[in-house]
Amino acid sequence: MRYTSTTTRTVITVLFLCTVAYNTWAGDKPTKPRPPVTEEAIEKGRVIYFKRCSFCHGLLGDGNGPAADFMDPRPRDFTLGIFKFRTTQSGELPTDEDLFRTISRGLPGTPMQGFDNELIKNGLTEEERWQVIYYIKTLAPEFSNPEFDPSDKVVSLPATRPPYNEETIAKGREVFKKAKCWECHGELGRGDGQKAFDRTDDWGFPIRIRNLTHSWKIKGGTDVEDIYMRFSTGINGTPMPSFVDSLTEEERWYLANFIKSLQHRPTEHTVLKVKFIEGEIPLDPESPEWQEAEPMDVRMAGQVIFAPRWQNPSIELVTLRALYNEKEIGFLVEWDDPFKDVVHIEDREFDAREISRVGAYNSYVNPFEMVPRELETFRDSVALQFPVKIPEGTKKPHFLRGDPSNPVNLWIWKSDLHNQGKPAVEEVNARGPQQPLKVQDPDSQQVQSKAIWKKGRWSVVMKRPLITEDRKDIQFVSGRFIPIAVNAWDGSNGEHDLIMSLSSWHYVFLESATPVKVYVYALLGVILTGLGEFWLVRRYR
Amino acid sequence: MGRFRIGFFWTSLVSFIIIYGLIKWSIPFISRKITGMPFPLPVPGTLMFMYMVLAVVAMFLYITFSEDGLEDFLYPVRRFLKGEYGTVPRGVVLAIVPLVVGWQIYDISIPKISAPVSLRIQHPSSNFPKKMEALKNPVENPTDEEIEEFIEQAKSGEVGFIPQVMADIERWREENPDVHILSFIPTEPVKRFLEELRTGRVDRETARSALREKNLFEGRALYAMNCRPCHGDSVGGDGPMADGFKLRPINFTDNGTIETIVEGYTFWRVSNGGPGLPIEATPWDSAMPMWRLNLTEEEMWKIIMAEYDLAQKTPRIPEKHEAEKE
Fold first, then answer.
1. Per-residue H/E/C for A4-27
2. Is B168 in contact with A395 (Cβ distance < 8 A)?
């Protein structure tokens, strides 16, 4: 009897602890009562701010810390009292809970990261987050003016909401058309609306309209509730309005469902399977054969490895597909780019010598001063990179342009050449980022290409014979893992040369026909098992 | 009402399924509750296989423990094979079993395409210059002269800073013209130092701590400018660029990273980056820059100091005999 009760008690305790552990993970909502606003709490907040926030937001909170010049979007200026992500009506101050949410989970797609110490070990505890909020509120006089108290201007989240399904998504698509969301966000949500480029925010900085399909860059949160909140409150300081007056509650839910449905979930595999087809490799990116090849999404980062460094890449995802036949291999390369840039003015390229030396002020590129981020200045471009030789074992060239003893072969597609009707792909070789690219001889240039830009997306096909005469070319053989990496440039984001996005090594694998022995083994298995059964049945008859 | 018995064969089969279910679903479920993380910890395939082999062996021993047990177990099997449960079910089962076996063999023997695994040594020492082992951070260990100089600077209100932080300090100075230049640092050691400056009796140890705070401030600024894009605000290896690199930036808060190495090693890694690694550490996959091309030694030491402070870790102390050799 005693034994049982002890067991029961243990089980109950364990279950209780589990429940507690589960609930405390919540994150962006406070779980404990907040500490009172005292001089001491503000003073502690000041120290936390100094240690953790001031390098971007500035010692005065004016958004001008030493790291601020190199990042876009720029850090928030706390002295103005304008905050983008709120649950309050358009134009109002945020609630304390709004600030708590932003500090806890950060703003994805910006340099502002989450500081929830339940998720990031050396983040801030709930108490520390409150303390720093109390300090930040002393920086803008608006917060101490009772006239601006936002507590009665909160947009509440309705208790009932329509389910997330095909029907409500379709209704949301209608709302997207009706409310003219596409004017800025583009028909497919890629941020390619016509008005997109000339917009600036209240701080005078150019607005980058979010690509709604890239969920990891959506600042205000990716849940249906978060999306609903964005067009119910608007985003202060930006052209994003509140739709409280123009759309009904229900319409906003439908719209939120539709926006949610646009979010793309990147694939996670790192081997691009090249499918064998009979007949020609299509040069046309819209040819139906491409849809039969399995896509591989490649995540890109800014080129932060070698000066000039770049932490504001606009291309963060490139999707690859590949096909081959007896003679040729072809790649379809696709990425979202809201603006089609097809000219290139070499005179406006950035001279990186000054920022590349030892002891330079900073080796990162200042996106507001050093590079022109304008239309019709730099070309859009993409490059596929392979080692010159398929590596034996795991040894590879470095993924940024190789190294002196391990060269790489790049196929660089350039939109300006494409626009002029010239062969648009240059085959080049590189031995590390410190040396200039070496363009191959004209008779070694064998990559053919065709490209289209449509609704905010480039689709580029590049194809080449599997095997070439050139010793500086990668040779494609089936059954081998061939490293591949991607470089990409968005011209209107000021990108050219090493100011670009890049990926780590992935692999290309040319699929071969299933070996006959696989079928033989399987058949043998079936026959032997059948014979065994026959023997058993006879024995027991 | 008599007790319902399903027989030894069925008991064994049901136990087998229950054991499989426990390992397959309960362990990940419980792990999720225990760790509190939003994802379960699945049981690896090989471990799963081992557990199931153990279960089969245990059941075999149990069944064959006595002659009766074996009889009891085989009874329904024999009846089934004789067709006493009906010839149609027998036919169906006898047809399915070989097909399942064939499908399994096909599944095992068909070539699978998955990226080749490359093993990686995280802290390679094969090309680490031994003389760097006992290197001490000069910024963390200032000489008495340097401390005296700092005191003199503070007394005259002319403290020197790295150019990267000057603009921000100057703007702060315009807003706060009447206080000491170091008052923008709101931490205790600096407050104590400023208090002692006012009374005129400055203790060297107080000054040392204040100088440390000043250097940490500069180190944090340099970290935010140079390292944060990959290693993150909270040194968690989760900066805005981190998702783009397959070999993710190191999380300095993890045990077994920067606390297991000596400062000289950290300095060597920061200086030479990925390209400075030996082959066993797959230098071609590392996005770590060769910082000696862009940062001064002093800047690197300040960053290292701030990095340990942000991670709340201390470097490993060089072993005695290494230091003595010098």
1. HHHHHHHHHHHHHHHHHHHHHHHC
2. no
